Amino acid sequence: MERGFDQGWARDRLLERFIRYARLDTTSDRHSATFPSSAGQLELGRMLAAELHELGLAGVRPDEEGFLFVGLPANLPAGRKAAPEIALMAHLDTSDSAPGRDVRPIVHERYDGKPIRLQQDVVLDPAEFPQLERYVGRTVITSDGRTLLGADNKAGVAEIMTAAEYLLAHPEIPHGQVSLYFTVDEELGTGMLRFPRSRATARYCYTFDGDEEGVIEAECFEGYKAQLTFTGRSIHTGVGRGKLVNAIEMAARFLALLPGAESPQATDGRYGFYFPLEISGSLERAALEIYVRDFEDEEALRRLEALRRMAQAVEAAHPGGRVEVVTEKQYSNLRRYLEPVPRVLELLERAIRETGIEPVRRSIRGGTDGARLSEKGIPTPNVFTGGHNFHSRQEWAALPAMVRAVETAVNLCRLWAESER
Ligand SMILES: [Zn+2]
């Protein structure tokens, strides 16, 4: 604000962009055999490339897998020390947890603070979603209740595009090399596996994929997966006494040993959990998949060890049966990659503070593409976008918060250049 960020301009550009992107169906498809999993993601990538071309960035195009990487050249005056390259990242796909075709965004200007009835059974009531109260008299955007809105992550996409346009239109704002990374199939968790790491030259990155205004997410779970296989022994029930070993009963006994107090439905805050999410089986063989989560790796490892002990206990209770436990790391806590480079968060906090509010740090009770990119050597915290109720028909976005995200991105680019002075 003190630098005269043009909020009115950003608001108009953002709104136009966001609505255009939201209308395009980019739902990722977990049953698809292609990559990216849906054609809409490629289409959105091409739309962005055409826009960037208009803005003067010629030759920008998505690769054949849908990743769109864009470089904004540094504009630092000669003689000034080079700034580290940073990247801003968002994903092009939307979740398949709610319908994403034929999205019709509704812009509620000067929101009156009352419940917003979108469909008979889809109501946004501030009593249920108190964040809405923050935007009384301001502009909020919803779907018409038949579909999700797609603010996850098109709010982030529109914000990054608008920040890029702003920087290009304001050469007086100094910045180092800035990259934009638009990714695909984030919602399926498969996008990062194909991320073209060799083309990513940024030292640090910021994903604009959070929700509540002002919030920074710099911590997520340590994620592990445990695959259990129960092997029984089948024999005719008529002669089963002392011989039959039932894998179904072994799996059931195992599940009964899991501590109910350490489940997702019994925990919040900084408590981790066991989360059994898939089971299948018959007499001879049963399979069980369990996610283990915690913010502290020692705690997660303790739970994995406990699973092995429970497996032994079940084997002991079913002589002749076997329980095999195979564990696998899924992702690491973002914190361990951000702690060695405190400036990444310090400058982000300063960038938000300069927009006129206090930043708030939160932990994600899940994983994030930022954690996966951090693992690949580019420390990446997550930044708010102003969207809410992701993956649902009640998804909504606050335009003032989206404007603030654009301003935050612009500030960040400048602050990194200034930090090297
Ligand atoms: Zn997202």
Summarize the structure.
By secondary structure, the protein is α+β, with helices and mostly antiparallel strands. The protein contains nine helices and 17 strands.
Task: Describe the overall structure.
- The protein is an alpha+beta fold.
- The chain folds into 2 domains: 7-220 and 333-419, 3-Layer(aba) Sandwich (Aminopeptidase), CATH 3.40.630; 222-331, Alpha-Beta Plaits (2-Layer Sandwich).
- 30% of the residues lie in helices and 22% in strands.
- It is built from 9 helices and 17 strands.
- It has a 7-stranded mixed beta sheet, sandwiched between helices. The protein has a 4-stranded antiparallel beta sheet with strand order 3-6-17-16. Strands 11-12-10-13 form a 4-stranded antiparallel beta sheet.
- Helix 1 packs across helix 3, helix 1 (7-23) packs across helix 9 and helix 7 packs across helix 9.
- The two termini are 22 Å apart.
- Zinc ion binds at residues 91, 152-153, 186, 209.
List the helices and strands and how they pair.
Elements: H1 7-23, H2 39-54, E1 68-72, E2 86-91, E3 106-108, E4 116-119, E5 122-124, E6 140-142, H3 151-169, E7 178-183, E8 204-208, E9 215-220, E10 222-231, H4 247-257, E11 273-281, E12 285-294, H5 297-317, E13 322-331, H6 335-338, H7 343-353, E14 360-364, H8 369-375, E15 382-383, E16 387-388, E17 396-398, H9 399-419
The structure holds zinc ion.
Zinc ion is lined by residues 91, 152-153, 186, 209.
